[in-house]
Design brief:
The protein is an alpha+beta fold. It has two domains: 3-85, Winged helix-like DNA-binding domain superfamily/Winged helix DNA-binding domain (Arc Repressor Mutant, subunit A), CATH 1.10.10.10; 100-273, Beta-Lactamase (2-Layer Sandwich), CATH 3.30.450.40. The chain is built from nine helices and ten strands. It has a six-stranded antiparallel beta sheet. A two-stranded antiparallel sheet has the order 1-2. A two-stranded antiparallel ribbon has the order 3-4. Helix 1 (27-36) packs across helix 2 and helix 2 (48-55) packs across helix 3 (59-72). The protein starts with 5 loop residues before the first strand and ends in an 11-residue tail after the last helix.
Length: 284
């Protein structure tokens, strides 16, 4: 993977990032956003020269962009020839984040991954001993007798999606969840022993994602990553699944894990930036 087109994500892997086509870019818009993105928690008010340096632009261009943004209400001038972001920026971001629940935010992200990266992409949440599916996009898994429509439940102990979320709970909570329901073999590969499951969850926590190869359903391979809130607790999980005939496990994990992590990371950032306004929504 080209390091210039990747960004780090939890778990030590990289999330793919597509380079934009310069022919489709409006340079003045990109420059305006480079000015807005120059502000940080440590640089909340800056002069024209300071913003020019942060944005990598000349002073004259920066001056014109700043006064355009002031006129539009996205920057506020200060008495000491400095400028800061206005609350209109917050309003714009908050509207984008809080207008929809997590399922609605996830749906377009999942659609971009099917069928290119996976045969199915899902969003689920923990409800007691179960994973409840909130959203599902699929193509090409009709020969498998599995039903993962929104509202459907599977036991968390037997699914990569369940492991991805359980791994970020304290061990005492993991034990409580795993012991709260009967654990039966879903295939010869399903882990049911408590100690073995706890060891698996520790492995998932280390690498940042969970993998299932036929453990939940014969002939399916799945990679799943957690969606964490600001405290690091799992709110939901994202999973990508393929027919086992499509790719060997190692190749599928190498291709799909960065996408699962990136999608989960995007949803986690939305939850955190919305200050709790975005949630998993009602469990049906």
């Amino acid at each position: 993977m080209d390091p210039e087109t990747a960004e780090p994500v939890p778990g030590g892997m990289a999330a793919p990032r597509t380079k934009p086509d310069p022919k489709n870019m409006v340079a003045s818009v990109a420059k305006a956003f480079s000015v807005l993105q120059g502000f940080t928690a440590d640089r909340q008010a800056m002069t024209v020269s300071e913003l020019a340096a942060c944005a990598g632009l000349d002073r004259g261009t920066t001056f014109r962009l700043i006064h355009t943004l002031v006129a539009l209400g996205y920057l506020n001038p200060e008495p000491v020839r400095k400028f800061r972001l206005s609350l209109k920026c917050l309003e714009l971001g908050f509207l984008a984040l809080s207008a929809l629940d997590l399922r609605a935010h996830a749906a377009p992200l999942l659609r971009t991954l099917v069928p290119g990266i996976a045969d199915a992409a899902s969003l689920g949440t923990l409800d007691g001993a179960d994973v409840v599916y909130l959203e599902r996009v699929h193509s090409g898994l009709s020969r498998h007798d599995v039903d993962r429509r929104p509202g459907r439940r599977i036991r968390a102990y037997g699914a990569a999606l369940g492991h991805a979320m359980l791994a970020w709970l304290p061990e005492s909570e993991q034990v409580a969840v795993l012991e709260s329901a009967e654990r039966v073999k879903l295939s010869e590969r399903t882990l049911t022993d408590l100690d073995a499951l706890l060891a698996r969850l520790r492995e998932v926590r280390v690498c940042g994602f969970a993998v299932s190869d036929g453990e939940n359903a014969y002939g399916l391979r799945t990679v799943a990553a957690p969606v964490l809130d600001a405290t690091g607790r799992p709110v939901a999980g994202v999973s990508l699944t393929i027919d086992a005939g499509r790719l060997p496990t190692a190749a599928f994990v190498a291709e799909a894990a960065p996408h699962a992590l990136a999608t989960a990371g995007s949803l986690a950032r939305a939850i955190q930036l919305s200050a709790g306004a975005i949630g998993a929504g009602p469990v049906r």
